[in-house]
DNA sequence: TCCTCTATGTCAAAATCCTGACATGGAAGA
DNA sequence: TCTTCCATGTCAGGATTTTGACATAGAGGA
């Protein structure tokens, strides 16, 4: 359609909105907005949901590990964890047996809340996936991965 | 490589980090971080740079139009414009001749600053683009676009 | 053992961004 | 004409996130 890309362009592109970075930000912003709208009905923010999802997958993750996995700073993740802890969705020991890392775990309430939120988020992701030809999905995933790795992500 | 995707999975995926949304966020975060590092040397933030780039392409854009194009709220863009205005990189009339929209324009200083910053940002984008097979680049752009549109972006 | 290095958790301060709200200006329709 | 509706710019407040800094705990080497 709009791939009127000339061969060997002197510049990456003329129109800013045609840049990969712009498209990337647009897609990420759209996803973030859709997730925000859905998660609000479940009383969760996007970082909180991401945190619950990560802890469900890998129980015992520490604050710093969660921060790296969610692409935020330790300080930001700390307030997220505090909120989840106050809401009774996760537990964290006050002292650590090994090092300073405090392993976090989901509570049964946290697991329940995650179950509901996950359904809503998966519906959003399904809508997003449905927009790309199925035979290109795997390539899209690997390309996103390579781009992130190329920038030290 | 890692596309050990079974046919017709009951759930979109088991591992969170395999989800499209997670990859999208990872790539966007890596790009944002790399741009932040580069733009800091030019005394610009990412929203400020985006604003300059948009104004170079489409002079006379109003605050609200810039906000939509940069995926932020009008209020956020307003403070960005204020900063650029105080730095003497853009100009905005205090009164409007038609409606309430105040058209913004780059100053010569703004154009100069943009030139330097653009080189740094383009280098980052080139590194990112180099990571994906050239024959898949066009498809990647359209797929990102379709995903954003599917979510009302 | 002692020293250095790295990683973690945490605090304080600032910057950034968003939500809610309000007044103004133009457009569309009765 | 008048009225309703929408878009824009702006203000105030709060929420979120980041930057900078500090103390602590473990690993590795001299």
**What's the architecture of chain A in CATH terms?**
Orthogonal Bundle
Q: How many strand units of chain A?
A: 2
Number of domains of chain A: 1
CATH topology of chain A: Arc Repressor Mutant, subunit A
Largest interface between protein chains, with number of residues from each side: A-B, 60 and 61 residues
Strand order of the largest sheet of chain A: 1-2
Please work out how many helical segments of chain A DSSP would assign: 6
Bulk shape of chain A: globular
Multimeric status of the protein: homodimer
How is the biggest beta sheet of chain A arranged? Answer: 2 strands, antiparallel
CATH superfamily of chain A: Winged helix-like DNA-binding domain superfamily/Winged helix DNA-binding domain
CATH class of chain A: Mainly Alpha
The sequence of SSEs of chain A as H and E is HHHHEEHH
- How much helix, percentage-wise, in residues of chain A? 55-70%
Mean pLDDT score of chain A: 89
First-last Cα distance of chain A: 31 Å
GO molecular function, one term (chains A, B): DNA-binding transcription factor activity
Protein name (chains A, B): MarR family transcriptional regulator
InterPro entries (chains A, B): HTH_MarR-typ (IPR000835), MarR/SlyA-like (IPR039422), WH-like_DNA-bd_sf (IPR036388), WH_DNA-bd_sf (IPR036390)
Pfam families (chains A, B): MarR_2
């Amino acid at each position: 359609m709009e791939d009127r890309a000339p061969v060997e362009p002197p510049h990456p592109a003329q129109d800013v909105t045609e840049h990969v970075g712009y498209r990337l930000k647009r897609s990420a912003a759209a996803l973030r907005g859709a997730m925000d709208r859905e998660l609000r009905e479940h009383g969760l923010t996007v970082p909180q949901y991401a945190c619950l999802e990560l802890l469900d997958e890998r129980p015992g993750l520490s604050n710093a590990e969660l921060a790296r996995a969610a692409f935020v700073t330790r300080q930001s993740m700390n307030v997220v964890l505090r909120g989840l802890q106050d809401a009774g969705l996760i537990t964290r020991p006050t002292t650590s047996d090994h090092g300073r890392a405090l392993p976090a775990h989901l509570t049964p309430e946290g697991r329940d809340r995650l179950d509901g939120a996950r359904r809503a988020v998966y519906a959003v992701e399904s809508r997003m996936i449905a927009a790309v030809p199925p035979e290109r999905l795997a390539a899209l995933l690997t390309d996103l991965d390579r781009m992130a790795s190329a920038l030290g992500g």
